[in-house]
Every structure is written in C-alpha cells, then in structure tokens.
Design brief:
With about 200 residues, the chain is α/β, with parallel strands linked by helices. It is built from 8 helices and 6 strands; from the N terminus they run αβαβαβαβαβαβαα.
Amino acid sequence: MKVLVKNALSRESLTIPFWRNAIRQGVSNSTLPETCRNKRFLYPASGEPHKNHLNLVRAWKYLAKVGLFPTLALTLDTTRDARLLATIRLIATKSNLAVENVSENSERQIGILMRSADAMIFPSLLESLGLPLLEAIESGKPVLASESDVVRDILDPEQTFDPLSPDSIARAVMRFLGVNSGRTEIRDPAAFLDQVRA
C-alpha cells in the first residue's frame, strides 16, 4: 500500500497496520548472514519488453536499500538493446548496484557465465519454452523465477515471485540468501494510537 500511495499521490506514507491481537514477527535485517555476501545472479536474456529487465533492476535497487548488493549479470546486446542498457546503467549508477552486462552471449559464453553464477534469475513475463531454464538444469544451478505455468512445466524453482512486482522479486532473492525480508509488524490498537499521536 505504501508503494501504491507513493505512485498514485507522489507522497510518502507511514504504514501502521493493527489488529485486535498484535502479531509479532521479525522485521530486522540488522545482521546479514555471510552466505549472502558476493553472490552472483545471472539473467541470460535478450532485451525484449517481455523479458522484464527493468523490474529486475528495480528489485536490485530494493535490495540495495536494505544493504544487500549481490551481482547481477545480464546478456544484453550493446547495439540492439542500447536504450534499455542505457536505462539500466543509469539506475545502477544512481543506486550503486552491482549490475554488469556481458554482451557476447554465445552458447559457450552463457555456459561460462552459468558456471560462475550462484543462481539464475528468470523474471520473464512470457515464454514459449524458456531455454535458459534448460541451461540452468543442465548446469545444476538453482533458479529463482516468475511463478508461471511455463516455468513449472520445466522445473520447480528454488524461489518464485510475482514478475510484475520488483518488491516480490527482491524478497525472493532475500529468501534465497537466507535474509529476513522484513515483514510488516502488526501492532495492537493501543500501539497504533501511540504511534499516530507521536
């Protein structure tokens, strides 16, 4: 809801959900496990809109806000996908993201990238088959992917997400890394009123 308010009204808001019996959940990311440091994710895909690169990079921006900076390797063509690549580089530079592009995406190069990655991420909105999924199976790499029938026809991903939501993509990466994704704390009515009055 906070994101919707920001997008619709261009205003920041404070989220304070409450329920008659408060529900306590962990919300802190103050200690990040060592396993999440220097992780490399690969998205081997061309730059067509349905490949969903911008939501993926926005997810990396979300991760940076919570102190996570995994590497994301892309395989965009520097000529054909120049505009998309320029947009991605702008976002990555502004948010200090570890996003790199490997433009030579021959089958041999993809194999090398796949072997050097810790996981493959696949936020595509639409596929007829999804060849990168087969490449991930062949290399034994875990896959984080859109929750879709096309993906499930080929494999059971390690984590799934809503590909239209950068937050959902980021939270799937956090789950994969073993990091608390910071669920909303549900307060009791008294705590809600205390915070509203503050």
